[in-house]
User: Which sequence fits this backbone?
């Protein structure tokens, strides 16, 4: 019998531990011919939990999941730069609660779209190269972080347009940063990873006054005293190749490389010497044929499960709250053969989306409510 990993009880209406779930394909959309690199549900606002967005080429598209497998296209934005290729997007919101979409890609400019007015809200220029991932601080959803090919991570305030902090320098990444994530409860912490094969944990605690100042700044954003955070509190060498996705699971971290698995590990505090000795590997979640980089996994709202695609168009759903690991489901369809670059799990995990390199979106639904 698998035991609970984090000691918390399952949330009513969410995937329960150690339970196999049957899913079936309920929809397939061909959005275009360009690869789709990201698909994300809106977990920021309970009114829009069934709304998701995708990016492909210079287009951002917003959809709604309806009953019976129906997917309704709500909005679409085409960037003015035809050469743009978006790689990532994240839901955020203004301080008045208005839902925003924050997208970035090959040209290094972050576009903030106001989905209420259906207009471009702001553009952030600062990164010197392409943007590989954007994530939102769930506790303060006006704050987003961006991970870039320019070897830096930046913290932005979408309300004021200010770049508050730059995580780079002496102890920073030495190659492209591919993924970044906010700690779910420690508002000061982020984790980043990239092509230097490392995962770095950073603390904003000593710079937090600047974060607070960014909300009340009335001068030009360019005049804000942006600060460099040069040294992480933990450097972990878990993988021997590019690390292209990391997510916090409580105080633990899930990360993956090109080794056909997701690794769950526990970072040690900063009293330990940074490096391989500063972590405990807890368990591994096998994902066959997942040996190409830029494949990102997703979790449901309560982090009960994770879903990840592979280069053959299959999706593996692993339960996260048990030890040893339990495979909830393996999803495949004879017509889905293209690499799945990212998945999205709905709030309760009952709907799984996959966006593919061939421009398709696949929707899977649990045949019985978990």
Assistant:
């Amino acid at each position: 019998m698998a035991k609970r990993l984090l000691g918390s009880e399952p949330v009513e209406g969410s995937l329960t531990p150690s339970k196999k779930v049957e899913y079936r394909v309920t929809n397939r959309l061909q959005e275009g011919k360009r690869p789709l690199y990201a698909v994300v549900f809106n977990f920021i606002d309970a009114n829009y939990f069934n709304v998701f967005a995708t990016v492909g080429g210079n287009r951002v598209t917003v959809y709604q999941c309806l009953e019976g497998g129906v997917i309704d296209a709500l909005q679409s934005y085409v960037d003015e730069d035809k050469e743009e290729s978006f790689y990532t997007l994240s839901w955020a919101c203004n301080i008045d609660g208005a839902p925003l979409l924050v997208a970035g890609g090959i040209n290094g400019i972050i576009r903030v779209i106001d989905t209420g007015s259906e207009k471009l809200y702001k553009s952030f220029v600062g990164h010197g190269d392409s943007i590989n991932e954007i994530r939102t601080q769930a506790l303060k959803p006006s704050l987003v972080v961006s991970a870039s090919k320019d070897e830096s991570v930046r913290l932005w305030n979408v309300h004021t347009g200010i770049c508050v902090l730059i995580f780079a320098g002496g102890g920073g990444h030495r190659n492209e940063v591919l993924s970044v994530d906010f700690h779910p409860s420690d508002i000061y912490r982020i984790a980043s990873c990239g092509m230097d094969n490392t995962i770095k944990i950073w603390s904003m605690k000593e710079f937090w006054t600047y974060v607070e100042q960014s909300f009340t700044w009335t001068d030009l954003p360019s005049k804000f005293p942006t600060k460099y955070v040069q040294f992480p509190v933990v450097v972990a060498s878990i993988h021997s190749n590019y690390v292209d996705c990391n997510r916090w699971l409580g105080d633990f971290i899930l990360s993956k490389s090109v080794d056909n698995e997701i690794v769950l590990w526990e970072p040690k505090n900063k009293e330990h010497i940074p490096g391989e000795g500063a972590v405990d590997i807890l368990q591994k979640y096998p994902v066959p044929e997942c040996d190409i980089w830029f494949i990102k996994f997703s979790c449901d709202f309560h982090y009960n499960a994770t879903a990840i695609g592979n280069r053959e168009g299959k999706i593996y759903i692993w339960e996260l709250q048990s030890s040893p690991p339990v495979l909830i489901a393996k999803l495949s369809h004879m017509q889905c053969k293209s690499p799945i670059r990212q998945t999205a799990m709905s709030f309760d995990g009952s709907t799984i989306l996959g966006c593919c390199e061939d421009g398709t979106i696949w929707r899977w639904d649990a045949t019985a409510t978990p």
